[in-house]
Automatic annotation (TrEMBL):
InterPro entries: SSP1_head-tail_sf. This is Head-tail adaptor protein. It comes from the Bacteria.
Amino acid sequence: MMIGGNVTALIQVKDEGKKNAIGEREHEWTDVIDFLGWLDYQGGQNSYSTYDAKVQETTHVFICGFQNCKQLSKKWVCNPFNFINGVIKSTSQDEKVDLTSENARMVIDGNIYDILLIDDPMRMHKHLEIYLKYVGGGLGV
């Protein structure tokens, strides 16, 4: 059952990462699927950090029709209207990935959100409620 929506959200998963010259893991984000749904503000604030930088700390919920989040293909073709870095990454093999809050993020209108929880209320498979935390937007995030 689809519930419609007015916002398209791009879901990205991060890879295992490769070690750089100083031993840090560098991860790349890969587009996996998009959801049509509703984005709603839950709470938050704008505050100033120690260095007088204004920081937005908000939480949102994204509600969409139910979609299975298991065994998604990493060869999915991205929606060009949601580009973050302008790079199209293509894999030669069809890797499968399960979408979880640990390995995924959501991109909506160029803004990046960490996924805190993916909820299938009462496991009825009618809709998903995806709880989000705003991270930022633009290049280099």
